[in-house]
């Protein structure tokens, strides 16, 4: 069995005999946590909790630095009440405030920490019921307090419907010190042999080394099954196939370069519209009156592959499979519902085939797959959807096929109604793959503010008559509250309205990678009417989004084809965008 060197051995000399670890080592530990597991930013926590007897009440105001399953000896000996321990690191160290029952707060001191920490630790607990509340450390570099999720008030913990004793943000991201485990863990969370420094060992469930830590790590969020299992949804009788641990490593590794480039001052170029470009080449016969582009993969596969090849040649760093309109609820309305699996599998194969035909020197693009809220049906079917259970099964089925067909990231497209989008969102995040939330068809109200739809009286309703407008700033937030969400796009939106939509995304609190792939032209069902604009106008708009909203992932949607993507690629490599010029 392959084993990795322990990190405390790597740093044995500077740590040995000291009451604190070197400041640069602490900085590396916190920086690595952020890069590995929170590449889009750490969530804030403003919650209350109490001990088991309720006599000691507290409040926590801080930032979640880490949530993980800890197998270390110190948790086992001193801190935790279970092994492995579901552990939280929360900053700052003073994040906890006792708001009632101060007289019940007691403490004891671990006089000398060893192995991975130095100095002393003070364990705070309720003197009446014995509940451990939190731990603070004497080492000044330990700027966090150690806590556990189960002491927080259940009533404040989210989810729809609410789940007793569970908080989405506290779900563990990984196992640490896994080589110290007492039993093998049968889940798909990343298993870190020791801790999270880059290059250290990652193991499988049996403890065998299978790779090393890279940034960001695969986000096997809340995977409570074995790596090749599916999650049975008892309420719906539906399943979402979850990516294996090996697939997660590959998928998150492929996504890493785009995220890092976008977050370190770079520019990422996506592909352009695929369905409309197929129409441009093959004619209006390639658009189905009941499912739009749903039949293109099956009936015009050679043209679809040709379009993918054109985007590869133009310099796109992400190629999206033509799966925008290939979910069951769309295909059934087009009369080809029995071909759901074959169409989606072929769509993914066409992307890989196009990439394989590129010169060896070309960097392999990310393989994206669309999971969209496209409705299906003819022009009279707006607002007509399947029942909620059927719709959830449809999204779960397509997401599962995309995972099994090798998708590296899910692009959750055409998000125009929050309550409707949640069905696709649930399926996307359950896969464990990186997810990009893509606001679609954004419109401005009479005051110039971007809006989306919501069904407030009946969130499960899919009827247009039950919907009302809500600001994007409000409607977007629930879709961002999951660690699998790594980026946000505004797409299938006019170039003029894209800027206000991007501004709304930032105002909704999104600090991570932001992108845009707008459309250009008019949709006259089921065909696209092309209204080409000068390339220079498109580049100028992109420069404005970059300068004003730090929008660093840019491509095209309907009507914006390979020549616009080539122009973006040339603009990127000219460097003109760095100086605020469109070049």
Q: Calculate Rg over CA atoms.
A: 25 Å
* Uncertain residue ranges: 1-17, 156-163, 220-238
Tell me the distance between the termini.
55 Å
Strand content: 15-25%
Helical stretch count? 17
User: Can you give the mean pLDDT?
Assistant: 86
Q: What overall form do the CA principal axes indicate?
A: elongated
Number of strands: 27
Helix amount, in percent?
A: 25-40%
Strands in their spatial order, largest beta sheet: 15-27-24-23-19-18-17-16
Largest sheet properties: 8 strands, parallel
Give the helix/strand class: alpha/beta
Write the layout of secondary structure elements.
Blueprint: H1 7-10, H2 12-15, H3 23-37, E1 44-50, E2 57-70, H4 73-79, E3 85-91, E4 96-100, E5 105-110, E6 121-126, E7 132-137, E8 145-147, E9 175-176, E10 191-192, E11 201-203, E12 209-212, E13 230-233, E14 238-241, H5 245-263, E15 268-269, H6 275-282, H7 296-299, H8 301-314, E16 318-321, H9 328-333, H10 340-356, E17 366-372, H11 388-404, E18 409-415, H12 418-430, E19 435-440, E20 443-444, E21 450-454, E22 468-471, H13 472-475, H14 477-480, E23 485-494, H15 495-507, E24 514-519, E25 521-524, E26 527-530, H16 535-549, E27 553-554, H17 562-574
Parallel strand pairs: 2-9, 15-27, 16-17, 17-18, 18-19, 19-23, 23-24, 24-27
Antiparallel strand pairs: 1-2, 2-3, 2-4, 3-8, 5-6, 6-7, 10-11, 11-12, 13-14, 20-21, 21-22, 25-26
Helix pairs in contact: 8-10, 8-17, 11-12, 15-16
